[in-house]
From TrEMBL:
Classification via NCBIfam families: GTP_HflX
Gene designation: hflX
Species for this entry: Lentilactobacillus buchneri subsp. silagei CD034
Domain Hflx-type G span(s) in chain numbering: 204-372
Protein name as catalogued: GTPase HflX
Biased composition (Basic and acidic residues): 180-202
Matches recorded under SUPFAM superfamilies: P-loop containing nucleoside triphosphate hydrolases
Classification of source organism: Bacteria, Bacillati, Bacillota, Bacilli, Lactobacillales
Length: 428
């Protein structure tokens, strides 16, 4: 199926402001372009402290870019920063090319990957907000064409059509924003109900977070394999950026009957457009409500430190602070290191290795099942439902039968311990 896709040839450009992460951010831009069915023909870089307010690159460099575009026979330029509407228009005019900035690029990828209604609405909202101030640019028009969710008002086609047309388009976009916001609110309400139901089940929740392509979904599937229910579906794993855009939650049951919920969600990337972060807040709030985060890191990537910093910055941007975290240094099988190997809250591991997943589970257990009590209860035969509940929900160590009922020694969490207090066996 993928073989049919024709790749759009592009030139990528970026400003080197002398930061240590520049080279990495250009590599990432090129990866993002590839994830968006583009073929990077050439990359042009200029050293400048700040972008030219009119044209991003300086005058001479723009001339060079114009020549490169002609020589390479390319008509699309991908820029490593978010541009102002006038910068987009000026580069367009000078180079006779279509411009897609970093934000537009990520928006396109998200729009093409979104599956669920909620994800689609979230992406559309982010897209509309991006388009609103850029109505008369090729960046906005391209976004409509590429994502096939035309608001009917994004295009540069109206250039010169006069102020009234512009006003009309702007109003159409604004109306659509209000509408999408409303629809999102409704889905969010439904989500909250779901979450409330889950909360009532008193199960601890663990969220996988981290950079895109780090292996979060692979860890999720490994855990489902080991501890999921038979009918549990696996989640999608793919070697591409932003394979996952929706949140999946699965209930896992460990051999000692302890249960928790594990969630897999959208990955992060540096300079994730703020429109997207805002739009995806509710999807990402799964992490905010978690009792424990597992940050999955591609340990084999030389840029892993920057990726971890990006993850931590994004988490604080969406308001996730102070949730305990385990760092899963994944893909160790690609390196010459021993694994699984644990140091404090860090685990060098491979999501494809059962031993690693078991070690990760041990670490999860230590964090979320702290408040357990080993209790011995005497349950009268008339309360058989309590015995069934304990059998299904707790780790039972011993069961004995006496004339006056069943004696069970089990590990109970705080809530259950309180609930079944009255059955506590008092030694005569
Ligand atoms: N060698 C190796 N490859 C892995 C490991 N874990 C994941 N991968 C591969 O890495 C790629 C990305 O894995 P995913 O699980 O989809 O990554 P993700 O973090 O869910 O990515 P997004 O959903 O895009 O954010 C896939 O090709 C996986 O097969 C690992 O431990 N070792
Ligand atoms: Mg994934």
């Amino acid at each position: 199926m993928d073989l049919q896709v024709t790749l759009t040839p592009v030139v990528t450009i970026g400003l080197n402001r002398n930061t240590s992460s520049f080279e990495y951010s250009m590599t990432e831009l090129n990866n993002l372009a590839e994830a968006n069915n583009m073929k990077v023909v050439e990359t042009l870089v200029q050293k400048l402290d700040r972008p030219d307010p009119a044209t991003y690159f300086g005058k001479g460099k723009i001339e060079e870019l114009t020549q490169v575009v002609i020589d390479d026979g390319v008509d699309t330029i991908v820029v490593n920063d978010e541009l102002s509407p006038s910068q987009i228009r000026n580069i367009e005019k000078n180079t006779h090319s279509r411009i897609i900035d970093r934000t537009g690029l990520i928006l396109e990828i998200f729009a093409n990957r979104a599956q669920s209604r909620e994800a689609k609405l979230q992406v559309e909202l982010a897209k509309l907000k991006y388009q609103l101030p850029r109505l008369h640019t090729s960046a906005s028009q391209r976004l409509d064409q590429q994502t096939g969710t035309s608001s009917g008002a994004g295009g540069a086609t109206n250039r010169g059509a006069g102020e009234s047309q512009y006003e009309l388009n702007r109003r159409t976009l604004e109306k659509r924003i209000t509408h999408v916001n409303q629809e999102l609110k409704e889905t969010a309400k439904a989500d909250q109900t779901k979450r409330k139901q889950r909360d009532r089940s008193e199960m601890p929740t663990v969220a996988l977070v981290g950079y895109t392509n780090a292996g979060k979904s692979t860890v999720m599937n490994g855990m489902i394999n080991l501890y999921g229910e038979n009918e549990d579906k696996q989640v999608m794993v793919k070697n591409m950026l932003f394979a996952t855009l929706d949140t999946s939650v699965r209930k896992l049951t460990l051999p000692d009957q302890k249960r928790f919920l594990l969630s897999d969600t959208v990955g992060f990337v540096s300079q994730l457009p703020h429109q997207l972060v805002q739009a995806f807040k509710s999807t990402l709030s799964e992490a905010a409500n978690a009792d424990l985060l597992i940050q999955v890191v591609d340990y084999s990537d030389p840029h892993r430190e920057l990726m971890m910093k990006t993850t931590e910055d994004t988490l604080s941007e969406i308001g996730v602070n102070g949730v305990p975290m385990i760092v899963a240094l994944n893909k160790a099988d690609k390196m010459e290191v021993a694994f699984p190997s644990r140091e404090g809250d860090n685990l060098i591991m491979s999501a494809m290795d059962e031993k690693s997943l078991q070690e990760l589970t041990t670490m999860i257990k230590e964090k979320i099942f702290k408040n357990y009590h080993r209790l011995t209860l005497l349950i009268p035969f008339s309360d058989g439902d309590v015995v069934s509940y304990l059998n299904e929900n707790t780790n039972i160590e011993t069961t004995d039968y006496r004339d006056d009922g069943t004696v069970i020694t089990a590990e109970l969490n705080d809530v259950d311990a309180k609930r079944f207090e009255k059955y506590l066996l008092t030694t005569e």
